[in-house]
Amino acid sequence: MNRILIIAASSDLSKSYIEYIKNDKLDIDVMVRDSCRIDKQFLPMIDKIYEFDLNDIESLNRFSSNSKYSQIIFFQGIDIIKPFQLYIIDDISQTFNVNVLSIISLLNILISKKYLLKEASIVIISSISGITKGTPGHVLYSSSKAALIGLVKSLSLELSRRSIRINCISPGLIQTKSLFAKNNQILSNEEKLAYETKYPLGFGKIDSLNGTIKFLLGTSSKWITGQNLIVDGGNSNV
Fold it and tell me: For a FRET experiment, which of 32, 37, 39, 119 has its CA 20 to 30 Å from that of 47?
């Protein structure tokens, strides 16, 4: 039986993915800050729940598992939207702790303690922000998500010795309750309409990444590693 570990399993995207794979032959472990945030409908599908605050990097050293994983997916991401000059140290540390350092820390544990099976696959959700273009007010988010591309490029070479793959997905704007709602708050109706015209296929839906994630985690992509796959509804072509 294959086992997947889903990081930040209470996010909108992760909930959609859990629903998407519910009929697959997978044992599902999840990591969340608060187990109460997991939808009750998913509890019968989940084998193990790990509670960790991804902003508390030191606490992640306590992560321990009796299982070995064939698939890992990192969904975490926070975006503190402010003009650059208004950022404070707490904004910087929280953004990079959650978006970058927690991933590095958990990968270090998973690899060093040999929790990954041979030919396992890892997927990290990055963003087109900071990759294909910049966005005012999102400097911390953009720079932290861009850092993940370098992580994947270099780590893929080390993991290939054990036939373990790692890839990134960089999505455009997806209509999640969190990030999409934030953008709605700061844009006028005219700005929203103008922004949407930059997406030839429209804004992403909650389930827009599911097929891509499953492809990269599965054996159909067994010759793909160290890549950043842009999934943005054509935005980067405009």
Answer: 119
Structure tokens at 207: 């389930």
Residue 182's pLDDT is what?
A: 61
Rounded to whole angstroms, the Cα distance separating 231 from 169 reads 7
pLDDT at 191: 75
Q: Which residue has the tokens 């993915």?
A: 17
Exposure string over 12-33, b if 16+ CB within 10 A, otherwise e: bbbbbbbbebeeeebbbbbbbb
Other residues' Cβ atoms within 10 Å of the Cβ of residue 229: 18
HSE, side-chain direction, 13 A CA sphere, residue 111: 19
Residues belonging to the active site: 141
Taking the CA atoms of the chain, what radius of gyration do you get in angstroms? 17
The answer, as to whether pTM is greater than 0.85, is yes
Which of 69, 227, 221, 71 is CA-nearest to residue 148?
A: 227
Instruction: Please choose, from the candidates 214, 233, 224, 223, the residue with its C-alpha nearest in 3D space to the C-alpha of residue 73.
Output: 214
**Segment-wise mean pLDDT, segments of 10 residues, the chain, 238 residues:** 94 96 96 92 95 98 97 96 96 98 98 97 96 89 97 98 97 82 67 84 95 98 98 93
State which amino acid sits at residue 155. Answer: L
Yes or no: say if 140 and 92 are a contact pair by the CB < 8 Å rule: yes
Question: Quick count: other Cβ atoms within 10 Å of Cβ 236?
Answer: 15
